[in-house]
Automatic annotation (TrEMBL):
tRNA processing listed as a keyword: no
Role according to the record: Catalytic component of the signal peptidase complex (SPC) which catalyzes the cleavage of N-terminal signal sequences from nascent proteins as they are translocated into the lumen of the endoplasmic reticulum. Specifically cleaves N-terminal signal peptides that contain a hydrophobic alpha-helix (h-region) shorter than 18-20 amino acids.
Reaction catalysis annotation: Cleavage of hydrophobic, N-terminal signal or leader sequences from secreted and periplasmic proteins
NCBIfam families xrefs: sigpep_I_arch
UniProt keyword list: Membrane, Transmembrane, Transmembrane helix
Protein name per UniProt: Signal peptidase complex catalytic subunit SEC11
GO CC annotations, alphabetized: signal peptidase complex
Localization terms from the record: Endoplasmic reticulum membrane
Record-annotated membrane-spanning stretches: 111-128, 134-150
Organism: Nicotiana tabacum (Common tobacco)
A biological process term (GO) from this entry: signal peptide processing
Membrane topology, from the record: Single-pass type II membrane protein
Family in the record: Belongs to the peptidase S26B family.
Single GO molecular function: peptidase activity
Length: 152
């Protein structure tokens, strides 16, 4: 799932911590700040999103979430609604061409979370097993054989 313009991600797991922190785990397939195979940890708190933060967002009409940096934050004084504008680190302009037709800003409901950490290279296991299913079957067979032949 690589995209030449934007950074593609594959949503893998959802994990809830008992102290009311919820994190999404995202496997990166292509990025400039992060490398292919890195797993990105997301957190969506009620804290305001700030320029410079890296967010993962969905755009209406697109299946694949995008990982980009926030470059502008616009708060409407009348409603308090916060809108953000994003840009890929390697892109010359902002992401308005990636947004839905006529959309100029991302609203809160578009944003899946902000990046709070990552594990480098760990996602390669998933990438390899997805792109080369034979590896997955060999691994399952080897583990099955190990279980059958092990002595207790």
């Amino acid at each position: 799932m690589s995209l030449p313009i934007s950074n593609a991600v594959e949503r893998n797991y959802f994990f809830n911590w008992s102290v009311s922190f919820s994190f999404d785990f995202v496997l990166l397939k292509a990025s400039s700040t992060f490398l292919q195979g890195d797993i990105l940890f997301l957190h969506m708190s009620k804290d305001p999103i700030r320029a410079g933060e890296i967010v993962v967002f969905n755009v209406d009409g697109r299946e694949i979430p995008i990982v980009h940096r926030v470059i502008k934050v616009h708060e409407r004084q009348d409603t308090g609604e916060v809108n953000v504008l994003t840009k890929g680190d390697n892109n010359f302009g902002d992401d308005r061409l990636l947004y839905a037709h006529g959309q100029l800003w991302l609203q809160r409901h578009h944003i899946m979370g902000r990046a709070v950490g990552f594990l480098p290279y760990v996602g390669w296991v998933t990438i390899i097993m997805t792109e080369k299913p034979i590896i997955k079957y060999i691994l399952i067979g080897a583990l099955g054989l190990l279980v059958i032949t092990s002595k207790d």
